[in-house]
Amino acid sequence: MTRMLIIGPPGSGKGTQAARISDRLGIVAISTGDIFRANVKEMTPLGVEAKSYMDAGDYVQDSVTNKMVRDRLKEADVEDGFLLDGYPRTTAQVDELDDILASIDQQLDAVLQLTADDEELVKRLLGRAAQDGRTDDTEEVVRHRLDLYHEKTEEVVSKYADRGIVAKVDGIGGIDEVTDRVMTALKDVQ
Ligand code: AMP
Question: Helices (H), strands (E): how many in the chain?
Answer without folding.
Answer: 9, 5
